[in-house]
Amino acid sequence: MTRLSLDSLRKTFGGTDAVRDVSIDIAPGEVVCLLGPSGCGKSTTLRIAAGVERQTAGRVLIDGEAVSDETRHDPPEKRSIGLMFQDFALFPHLRVVDNVAFGLTALPRGERRGVAAAYLARVDMSGHADKYPHELSGGEQQRVALARALAPRPQVMLMDEPFSGLDNRLRDEVRDAALSVLKAEGSAVLLVTHDPEEALRMADRIALMRGGRIEQVGAPYHIYNNPKDRAAAAFFSDLNVIHGVVRSRQTDTPFGLFLTPGLVDDADVEIVVRPQHLRIDLDEGRAPESTARTGVAAPGTVVRARFMGSESLIEVGMEHDGSILRATVPGVFTPERGRRVWLSLRREACHLFPCAAQSKVRSPYVHGDEAAIRDTA
After folding, report:
1. Three-state DSSP string of 111-170
2. Which of 41, 197, 283, 361 has the smallest number of CB atoms closer than 10 Å to its CB?
3. In CATH terms, is domain 4-230 a member of 3.40.50.300?
4. 138-150 and 168-185 are packed helices; what angle lies between their axes, rounded to 10 degrees?
5. Among 324, 3, 52, residue whose Cα is nearest residue 154
6. pTM of the predicted protein model
7. In whole angstroms, how far apart are CA 164 and each of 159, 233, 235?
8. How far apart are CA 193 and CA 200, in angstroms?
9. Two domains, one topology: 4-230 and 231-354
């Protein structure tokens, strides 16, 4: 069953499309994150879903019924939606319980405070019911905002960067509490964020937006491990990029040969690998043994090593071309500057893409498993 449907949405401002052909369905109890950089169209999409903006073309449907199309445009209060924003938007002159009860106009006056109190209990804020918003911390105010949005039992919850105003210490706690309550309520949730960690932590599916379009949709594990292109991969973490040229449907690198059956000869390609998928070995006089999983090890020299708390970051200048590759290692590992080391990579975690300007490439070829990327030397 689909609770919220966005169907071929387009929104134009001054002749420029801010949102282009955006379509996605969200089921009851499902959390979908619109993830992307500032200006990609994600907040405009959410505002269209809320009814705050009207689309230039396309439809918004709730439970299969159009609430906005070319002939109809229901206002937000007619759509059975809850809204949460970064600024909390609590009424400063009302006590916490009255803030939560404010939107319960469909209930008899005598029942509103009871329902408000029940939702405050759901977010562990019962002890603060008679306080004013200025007496609460940022995390507590956001819990109250969540209770207020949920109290009318909306079919759809729309959330625009709701946790970005919280400090790191509170953010995870409040996000986890919100996710638990949202799942229990069974609302369809559309969450807008620019934070990939937040999307990975909260979403059942991630819709990655760029330039007003949804470029890729999938479960967090899938979209992280099978990015559509280099830009999609880079949005989730730092990348190392190794350049190569296709010869006879394979690309030779200092780390061994990579199969490239989807690319034509002379195509320029980029092999990308995240720092945590590089292995670093100290030079003990000979190269580490080559394996099908790691391929050939390539030599380099430590440029800098830093302990980052839970892991160490080592920057290595590569002998073959002078490029700098970054590896992360759990715990403390800080070899001295100038120390010779060997780098190898987890080949099943590598992704191979054509260079963006490469016109001879038929289509991106993304390797996502060990069978697709292996040492053929």
Report:
1. HHHHHHHHHHHHCCCHHHCCCCHHHCCHHHHHHHHHHHHHCCCCCEEEEECCCCCCCHHH
2. 197
3. yes
4. 10
5. 3
6. 0.86
7. 11, 22, 17
8. 11
9. no
Question: Could you tell me if 341 and 280 are in contact, meaning their C-beta atoms sit under 8 angstroms apart?
Answer: yes
Contacts with 132 (C-beta within 8 Å, 6 or more apart), sequence order: 92, 93, 94, 95, 96
Contact 187/154 with Cβ under 8 angstroms?
A: yes
Q: Per mean pLDDT, which range of 147-151, 168-172, 184-188 is the poorest? A: 168-172
Reading the block at residue 261, the tokens are 């059956």
185-196 burial string, b = 16+ CB within 10 Å, else e? bebbbbbbbbbb
Give, as one character, the DSSP assignment of residue 295: B
At the fourth CATH level, the homologous superfamily of domain 231-354 is Nucleic acid-binding proteins (2.40.50.140)
Indicate the domain borders of the chain: 4-230, 231-354
Q: Could you give the dihedral angle defined by the CA atoms of residues 53, 54, 58 and 64, in that order, rounded to the nearest 10 degrees?
A: 80
- Pairing relationship of beta strands 4-13 and 16-26 according to DSSP bridges: antiparallel
CA distance 170 to 204: 22
How does DSSP classify residue 224? H
Please determine, for residue 63, whether its predicted confidence score (pLDDT) is greater than 60.
yes
